[in-house]
Design a protein that fits this description.
The complex is a heteropentamer, with 2 copies of chain A (222 residues), 2 copies of chain B (214 residues) and 1 copy of chain C (257 residues). Chain A has helices at 2-18, 20-40, 45-68, 73-77, 80-85, 91-120, 128-155, 162-186, 192-221. Chain A is elongated. Chain A has one domain. Chain A starts with a helix and ends with a helix. Chain A has 222 residues and is mostly helical. The longest helix of chain A has 30 residues, at 91-120. Chain B has helices at residues 54-62, 105-115, 122-128, 144-157, 174-189, 201-204; strands spanning 16-25, 28-38, 43-47, 69-74, 90-93, 162-166, 193-197, 210-213. In chain B, helix 5 links the parallel strand 6 (162-166) and strand 7. In chain B, helix 2 (105-115) runs parallel beside helix 4 (144-157). Chain B starts with 15 loop residues before the first strand and ends with a strand. By secondary structure, chain C is mainly α. Chain C starts with a helix and ends with a helix. Classes of the chains: A mainly alpha (222), B alpha/beta (214), C mainly alpha (257). Chains in contact: A-B, A-C, A-D, B-E, C-D, D-E. Chains A and D meet through helix 2, helix 3 and helix 8 of A and helix 2, helix 3 and helix 8 of D. The complex binds protoporphyrin IX containing FE, adenosine-5'-triphosphate (2 copies) and magnesium ion (2 copies).
Chain lengths: 222, 214, 257, 222, 214
């Protein structure tokens, strides 16, 4: 069972690295969003600092959503989803493997880049560890939510992406706790509260999300 | 071993039994009261006009869809409720090939083999299917028939006893067709069971034991 | 003089420039000259600019970074134009060698863009009090130029079919050219921290002679240096593209022997 | 010739309305970005007002990029792009028709929604006409640019997100002029300057963009 | 009219001439020095193993790709440099069907007809192809063979004199195959020219004038 998951993980990672430009894109996207934003807004240090956290989190949200859009689409179009449904492992696990692979190539590099962007928004250096911790707890949740959205979208090809969009509001709490944590960290205060909340959201998402996504995918292809 | 393709070798104990099956799709009734059974070593040919429900039948047999009524019994179990560990026993090849366009032929085959804990080496298959020249090419860059060959190779790597093939001859040239026919014979000789849909029943006649006309 | 033979001669030269062995040899013959001259010019310019030239009355010695900043900024833009022109020629006349040239320019241009950004940033600290100013048009568009170079290279790499990569990325290179005039005029169109045109402007350069001459020498040195690197890369690129042809095989055999 | 264009326009519009939820996606995206943003940032009126313009323009940019990602992908995967290349009209015109159809369903509703979002960022009512005018001039350019990006990446399955990398640098000017216009309008000053610039960018984009996109599509499918 | 399918009716003046054509794809040479010509009323059957370059040849003939060397002459013009107003004269049907999944059969056909300024009504075609039942269904919900039928109907609606068909029999049942053969005959009788690739030359033998073996 576990080796099935590992095989899928490995294949998806290889696919991601094969198309490494796709891999790099959410990141560059992230950087560009974060760098175009100040261009559009007034370039004043105090103000940049105050919106820095919001921009980082919005960019993280958008880039994880963008990256996950095609998670099931390619598989369902080339027929490999049918093979995965028939795989010798529960579909929930299979979906989890796909989410982990995507998170590894889109979420993890974000953790590395976010500090750079944060610094360009004049976030204090001392707040960086907390920022990274918050992102590390939040990006899995975002990935799972995006995957659920993608699964629902696949199933409603005609009905379209609307249900996928219903997922977006669910990202609200992640966004709020994340920004809160970053802002508290910038002020040098304790971030334990928001981090706990983020962690519990992550546990909830990772344990339930894949099951919902699996059910949606299965119905979609029936 | 020719007679083995008619299933006499393994006794008349059926392993796949379809009883008064009813299949609906998109709210339309397609099949009604369909029954047939296959013993080890037997191959069923599913024929019928376009849109008569061949693909839908195979998907139901694979457990990808749920029948509206009736029973399917595969070694005492129902396909769409098969526990994960038994799923390796059924191999399904649909109209779409299930290959990853961004992986090479070799990588696709290796994935199939390890994913299904397949036996057998990749090399002889590649030679048999004349894929040597494009072995390290991306599947995206293959011709339609070459792609179909790779999909067939994937099937062969999976140690399944029940083959469900949806028009396997599509896009294949004469040599490719011969390979498929030979494989079906070998599979039957090993006691495997196959359900094959096709629009060219004459071409597959030598491999077939029964015909299910929809 | 009759115009026709000249045109025909030009046409023939153009054709010869499309021949890989010819260009390979040409690049090989040019590159030592470029290498030596650029090193001499860079040495002279650096000595003149860093030691002989008087300090700026406003900025003191920090202005001396101009001798790196300005040439690399110019080359970042000129390199992009060169790349786009080469790519366009390659697209229109299906000339593989021109695509090869564009491919070679891209990383060099990206490096010089990065250099302009870094030296500008370093220079900004003493003069503007900050390394980087979000929202300054000149700075932002120079950064976007870097992104364009990167985009071009990433787009190329995501194709595995070289011919397709050549043709599609050429289109991107051409589209991106709009950025170059925007960079140049950004200081006039927007109020920026960055100073206005000094060298290329109506009414001639507004800079004293003893700063201008070393700057021009550095400019020439950087350009030749760029050309030298380009020749080297172009040779490699030609070999890679032509690795299956007879002349490369014989070349390799000669080198081996 | 012109009727070919009209046929494509009509078919694409029908397809868009058939999948009306997909149609709604960029809009809902736009609204959510614009409404989540204040949630993430500190909800202080003065601050919101100062970044309002930037947020509106970033959202417009992102949603037009998202909407146009699949402009040529679906067509090239189901084989209709080949038919369009063989169409009895220059490919540039065909591409223009597709862009217009997409703009009609993604750009126009944006014009309608933007004022609502603007008001939620406390933009003065008097500035709304200028905002709409600026968006009306800018969204065609954004659509064309996104189409060029989509065309450059059709043959890459990866496509999707790499567009952002290719096109965002080109959207810089639109973003700057757009925000400038909105800010000037908020201050009650004349916006003629940025509007002229936006208009000339639009003319440039609409006249040259389709040709480039057509060339890219043709090469990609060669 | 049977003899018309062999092009005798219209004299021996060729309208499609392929001269020492060379086709490359992805850097690999596929065809080299291929020459043939077709006069009005003639049909060429392109045969060859999987990956031999049938699809590539048809794409070059359609003007979708550029040949590496050699000439193609269609009524004095080169396909990939055909001015837009002449493009309606060539109809290409590839492995992919070019239908919009989100439109109904009817809508797809109506688009084709008006797009190509086609003549003829949609109804008789639908009847001939037995698509009445799924006429108002989304193409996404059709079976593989039904989809292929719709694509063929689109082809028929286009008033083209040169037909380029890439394995038109794929997924079709026996009746569908008969329709294609009949159409080819009718097209030839009207003075049209067709290049058809296939892996079942015997089935199409009655419609063919020459065979191009790759
Ligand atoms: C990161 C910061 C900077 C960037 C990205 C940057 C970028 C550029 C670019 C692209 C050019 C070429 C413009 C053209 O040819 O039209 C340029 C020229 C120049 N830069 Fe900078 N620069 C930066 C900082 C500075 C600073 C701090 C100074 C000095 C106070 C400076 C002084 C100059 C001068 C004197 C020129 C030549 C102007 C001309 O002749 O047009 N730059 N810079
Ligand atoms: N997109 C592509 N890029 C590069 N090479 C390709 C591409 N498509 C096909 N090829 C290669 O070109 C050769 C010819 O392909 P083509 O599709 O023309 O063959 P075919 O004769 O139509 O085969 P089939 O009977 O399988 O359809 C094959 O060897 C294939 O591997
Ligand atoms: N996704 C779907 N939703 C609803 N109805 C469908 C769907 N796919 C197919 N159908 C309908 O179900 C019927 C049977 O389809 P199926 O694909 O099983 O036919 P088939 O026998 O495989 O035909 P073919 O020989 O063309 O492949 C057809 O009439 C078709 O219109
Ligand atoms: Mg079927
Ligand atoms: Mg083919």
């Amino acid at each position: 069972m576990l080796d099935v998951v590992l095989h899928i993980l490995r294949r998806d990672l290889r696919l991601a690295f094969r198309r490494w430009s796709e891999l790099a894109t959410p990141l560059i996207f992230f950087v560009i969003i974060a760098s175009l934003f100040p261009l559009a807004a007034t370039p004043d240090e105090a103000q940049l600092r105050s919106i820095g956290a919001a921009v980082i989190w919005m960019s993280a949200l958008l880039s994880s959503l963008l990256a996950l859009d095609g998670l099931f689409r390619a598989d369902s179009e080339d027929g490999s989803m049918e093979q995965l449904i028939l795989a010798p492992a529960p579909l929930g696990l299979v979906v989890l493997a796909k989410i982990v692979a995507h998170w590894a190539v889109s979420g993890v590099p974000l953790l590395v880049l976010a500090p750079l962007v944060a610094m360009s928004f004049y976030l204090p250096l001392a707040a960086l560890p907390e920022l990274i911790a918050a992102l590390a707890l939040a990006t899995p949740t975002l990935s799972v939510l995006a995957a659920v959205g993608a699964a629902l979208t696949v199933s409603l090809r005609a009905g379209g992406t609307i249900i996928g969009l219903l997922i977006l509001p669910l990202t609200g709490p992640v966004l709020i706790f994340g920004t809160r944590a970053t802002e508290l960290a910038a002020l040098g205060e304790s971030v334990a509260g928001p981090l706990y909340l983020l962690a519990s959201l992550a546990v909830l998402a990772v344990s339930l999300g894949p099951l919902i996504a699996a059910a949606a995918v299965r119905t979609a292809l029936e | 071993m020719a007679s083995a393709t008619h299933g006499d070798h393994f006794g008349a104990c059926p392993v796949l039994t379809v009883t008064s099956l009813e299949v609906r799709r998109g709210g339309i009734g397609l099949l009604r009261d369909l029954s047939f059974e296959l013993s080890p070593g037997q191959t069923a040919l599913v024929t019928g006009a376009n849109g008569s429900g061949k693909t839908s039948l195979l998907r139901v047999l694979a457990g990808l869809a749920v029948p509206a009524a009736g029973r399917i019994d595969w070694h005492g179990k129902t396909p769409h409720r098969l526990p994960p560990e038994d799923r390796g026993d059924i191999a399904y090849l649909g109209h779409r090939d299930g290959l990853k366009r961004e992986l090479t032929v070799d990588e696709n085959l290796r994935f199939c083999r390890s994913f299904w804990k397949g036996r057998g080496a990749v090399e002889p298959l590649i030679a048999e299917l004349r894929l040597e020249a494009c072995r390290h090419r991306y599947v995206r860059r293959l011709s339609a028939g070459q792609r179909r060959r790779v999909a067939l190779a994937c099937l062969r790597l999976k140690p399944a006893r029940l083959w469900l093939l949806d028009e396997p001859l599509t896009n294949l040239d004469a040599r490719g067709t011969d390979v498929v026919i030979e494989w079906l014979g070998r599979h039957a000789a090993e006691g495997g069971v196959a359900v094959v849909s096709t629009h060219r029943p004459q071409r597959l006649a030598t491999a077939a034991s029964i015909e299910v006309a929809l | 003089m009759n115009a026709v033979p000249i045109r025909r001669r030009l046409w023939r030269a153009f054709h010869r420039l499309g021949s890989p062995p010819y260009v390979y040899r040409l690049a090989g013959r040019l590159s030592p000259w470029l290498g030596v001259t650029s090193c001499v010019l860079l040495a002279v310019g650096a000595f003149w600019g860093l030691v002989l030239a008087p300090p700026d009355y406003l900025q003191g010695d920090s202005f001396r970074i101009i001798y790196i900043h300005v040439p690399s900024a110019y080359l970042s833009m000129g390199g992009y134009v060169l790349m786009a022109v080469a790519a366009a020629i390659g697209y229109i006349w299906r000339m593989k060698l021109a695509h090869g040239l564009a491919v070679c320019v891209a990383p060099l241009g990206a490096w010089f863009t990065a250099l302009a950004l870094v030296t500008g940033g370093i220079w900004g600290k003493p003069t503007w009090g900050t390394y980087w100013e979000w929202g300054d048009a000149r700075l932002m568009f120079e950064l976007l130029l870097l992104f364009l170079y990167i985009g071009y290279m990433v787009l190329r790499m995501s194709f595995d079919d070289r011919e397709k990569a050549d043709r599609v990325s050429a289109l991107l290179a051409v589209v991106g050219v709009v950025n170059v005039p925007i960079i140049h005029y950004s200081v006039e169109w927007w109020t920026t921290l960055h100073q206005g045109p000094t060298l290329i402007r109506e009414g001639g350069p507004s800079i004293t002679m003893d700063m201008l001459i070393p700057l021009l020498i550095m400019l020439a040195g950087f350009s030749l240096f760029f050309g030298w690197l380009l020749c080297k890369r172009l040779q490699g690129e030609i070999l890679r593209r032509e690795s299956r042809t007879r002349w490369v095989r014989t070349l390799a055999a000669e080198a081996g022997a």
